[in-house]
Amino acid sequence: MGYGHSDLGRPHIVEPVTLKILVAGGFGVGKTTLVGAVSEIRPLRTEEILTEAGRPVDDIAGVESKTTTTVAMDFGRITLREDLVLYLFGTPGQDRFWFLWDELATGALGAVVLADTRRLEDCFAAIDYFERRDIAFTVAVNCFEGADRYPEESVRDALDLDPGTPVVLCDARERESAKHVLISVVEHAMLAAARG
User: Fold this and answer.
1) How far apart are CA 158 and CA 12, in angstroms?
2) How far apart are the first and last CA of the chain?
3) What are the pLDDT digits (tens) for 34-84?
4) Is the pTM of this model over 0.90?
5) Which Gene3D superfamilies match (predicted)?
6) Cα angle, residue 154 at apex, residues 148 and 160 outer, rounded to 5°
């Protein structure tokens, strides 16, 4: 919270604008990691251990070291400026938890669709979800070690994105990189709102 001075010499509290941003994408793409890297509070996580019973429905190809999964949501908060606070809601990546998405998307300004070039097709459903609901989004390619890196335009073409949809490269583990992604979402969503 910030304080300013009124004409009467009494301090007044600057009430920040709060915005809701979703962090979406396929299973194992780094949504929980991104929320945790950038959140200024201890993030709320609903992680559960992957089990043998889930093996037929949780495809861990390419993310073999993954041992937990989000079963409801992740929640974090970041203050971008004294007057601007983002509430982050990480969505679960598996199809069986998609019933939660409509509730999480209510009131969202925009979204991050986190992508992994090793499993790029896993983000198609999230892109389709936000396009159908006219929610502005940025595609953030999480640059995993050992994964091939592609120019932003190649990713845009592979995902068949509208020319105005931002594509950024990031490392979901690094706070500044994740913050850059969130700034991109806010700027894109505000431009889309001004045009709409």
Assistant:
1) 50
2) 31
3) 999 999 988 766 555 544 545 555 555 555 554 555 545 688 999 988 899
4) no
5) P-loop containing nucleotide triphosphate hydrolases
6) 125
